[in-house]
Amino acid sequence: MNKPHFQSLREELDNTTIQIADFLTREVTDAFTRSLEELRTSGQAKGLPIGSIAPDFTLNDHTGKTFTLSEEVVKGPVVLTFFRGSWCPYCNLELQAYQKQIDTITSLGAQLLAISPQSPSHSLTMQEKNGLSFPLLCDTNNQVAEKYKLRFRLPDYLQNTYRSLDIDLKHFNSDDSWTLPIPATYILDNQGVIRSACLDPDYKKRMEPTEVFDILRTLT
User: Fold this and answer.
1) What is the pLDDT at residue 7?
2) Which CATH number does 9-219 carry?
3) Burial class (CB in 10 A: 0-12, 13-18, 19+), 19
4) What are residue 184's DSSP bridge partners?
5) pLDDT tens string 83-132
6) Cβ proximity of 111 and 134 under 8 Å
7) Which residues pair with residue 49 across a beta bridge?
């Protein structure tokens, strides 16, 4: 009997890209492509390198509970993932993939903290919709993302493209900065040192959970 094939996160992301392409106009696709190229060549949002000390922060999650990074890393490794918001299908898939493997993360002595600029109410809705058991931290105006060199502002033409898709970041983020983080995943040891970093201006690319496990096993 053949074993069932379980899709990797990468496969799910690729399939979503194919499905979405059927609904996007050429104008929208061109705007996304242009913005990715500009972000790559601008030198913006390059992220922090491996070996850096992760900047400390204090944020509330979607329930109002406060998390301070320096207090969390002493408990064990931290997987810190920055995502765009509940409106992003790729972010939903990423967090769903982590939820499926959350027991493995905790069994390795680590915890997962997910950060986005969206308001607590949208994070709460996302948590309930996807059955997420880990904290969704609310980074208003992407202030923490700025510390991690992930924050960028959407150009005017891209703001218009988002609006045409009924994605109003003022509504989701409760601020008018029109900024987002580049999706990124950092793995921190119990000294707060970045031991692994995965980021890409292309929001369709995310770190595979199995890759996270491999790094965590070296830290325990």
Assistant:
1) 81
2) 3.40.30.10
3) exposed
4) 82, 199
5) 999 999 999 999 999 999 999 999 999 999 999 999 999 999 999 999 99
6) yes
7) none
pLDDT of residue 198: 96
Sign of the Cα torsion 80, 117, 202, 204 reads positive
Name the pairing type of β-strands 151-153 and 184-188: unpaired
Report the DSSP pairing between strands 136-138 and 78-82: unpaired
Q: Which amino acid is at 168?
A: D
CA atoms within 13 A on the CB side of 72: 22
* pLDDT attached to residue 45: 77
CA distance 108 to 101: 11
State residue 200 phi and psi, 5-degree precision: -155, 130
CA triplet 134, 139, 145: central angle to 5 degrees? Answer: 105
Tokens, residue 200: 């890409």
Cα within 13 Å of Cα(115), Cβ side: 33
pLDDT of residue 218: 95
Annotated domain spans of the chain:
9-219
For residues 51 and 79, what is the distance between their CA atoms, to the nearest angstrom? 15
Average per-residue pLDDT for the chain:
94
d(CA 159, CA 169): 9
pLDDT band at 220 (very low <50, low <70, confident <90, very high): confident
Q: How far apart are CA 192 and CA 200, in angstroms?
A: 22
Picking from 111, 38, 18, the residue whose alpha carbon sits closest to that of residue 73 is 111
